[in-house]
What does this fold into?
Amino acid sequence: MSKECAARTILVYGEVKHVGFRRFVWGLAKRLGLRGYVSNLPENGVKIYVEGEPEKIERFEKRVSQNKVYKVERIEVRESECRGVYNDFMIIKCASEAGLYGEG
It folds into this structure.
C-alpha cells in the first residue's frame, strides 16, 4: 500500500545562491525521505519541487523558512500535483537549463 503523496513548489528569494543553500535543502529533503529537486532560478532565487508524505513536507517547509543560516527574504509556496516521477531528491544547476522553469 502506498502512502499519501503531497507536493509543493517552493520559490525562495534572498541571499540563497552560491552560499550552500541548495546543499542545505538537499540534505534536509534526504533526511526526511522526500523526492524532487532544488535548482537555481535565473533571478536571485532558488526553486524547490518536493513530494512525499504531507507531514514530512510540512516539516520541510518549516525548516526551510525558519533556517537561521541563510538570508531568506521571501518564500512563495504553491500546492503542486504529486507526479511520482522522482525516485530521489537532487540538485540541478539551473531550472531553466534543465527545462524545469515552468514545471510545478
